[in-house]
Amino acid sequence: MDTAADDTMTDGSAGAPERLPDEPRKRSWRTWPPALPPAARPYLAPLVLYGVTKLVGLAVFASLLEYAGDYKEKNPRFGGGAHWWDVLATWDGWWYLQVAEHGYSPSLVRLDSEGLFTVQQNSVAFFPLYPALIRVVSETTGLGLYGSGILVSVVFSFVAAAGIYAVISLIAGARAGTIAAGLWAVAPGAGVEWAVYSESLFVAIAAWACYAVMTKRWVAAGLLAFTAGLNRPTSAVLVGAVGLAALVTLARPATRREHGVRGPVYAMIVAPLGLLVYIAWVGYSIGEPTAYFTLQREGWAHFFDYGAHTLDVLLNLAVGRGDYPFAFYTPDLLSVLLVLALPFLIALMLRRKPPLVLVAYTLATVITVLGTQQMFGNTMRYLLPAFPLLLAPAAAMSRLKLPSLVVFFTTTALASGWYAHYVLFELGVP
Fold it and tell me: What is the pTM of this model?
């Protein structure tokens, strides 16, 4: 036998040209789509689950609207429009689009009326970050203000879902984080996530701010809390949670030595500035330091009443009365069910021993929502930012097998088109 031939067969080089180690491979259509960066790969599953679930719910919502057809008979500002998708930019969405188009005209006009509303409603009640982003996207892309508002909400809803995944996965694992992102898509009130509303933007900021605190990125946490302060008045709960976590870190010698002093101090100082600056600007522009709070109380009937209104609604619904303000039966009943579930969700969350920032943020959110005079049917929407409540259900569901999860999310996605979308926009006032 030829030994040269044996050597050739042994080294495996026969029949194929040798390629040098540093020789680049030729690209082929088979490499499309390109591989995700390693850091982005963990987020693929939660974002796909979130997106598919939202699309199913939105399709059911559109079908219900077309079946009912009532939206065509309503005022385009108050839940109506020529097409079903116009409903997504009504109520609060109308105000955001007004700010995006015309800016602010701060004023405090007293009305000659009795009851809850004694001040004329004004657009300064709606914080500037979301409408500013709408205007920027519109000017940059050429989209109309409506399309830009939807685009901003949809994009930041995915950012929020990724943030929820990041937070929950740190505590309960990647599978639980993925499920939590899916649960947020079908949560009560989730219909506003893909509407001209600021919830998606706020939750995106809040989730990543909490993640920054959990990973000791104090500068990022402070800047995110500052940004949240330009988006919603409820950013006060995030500001407080970040500040409390920073204060506790400084109070403990071990963590102070490990993480230093500058980062937590920076977060404590910067976090509240966005909220304070905007409220101060409203007061300065109108000429009354407390003008923002007066407008919220007497123009929108939103003010902290230590839970008196919530208790009144619960008692009235318990005995079958509907003589309290803003009685929208179905949304109120769903909100009651959610409120009754809160003690269990909070207790289960605390059993998982989450970081202080999540506990403070969640409890402050719940206290603020339940302790405020407002339209009770919107409780579902107002509690949407309390995403850490998803921790325990997501951790428990992470033990389920894939077929069970598919059945669950298919069912809830279909149902969410009614309870999380249609109920808010068509049966209630979001």
Answer: 0.90
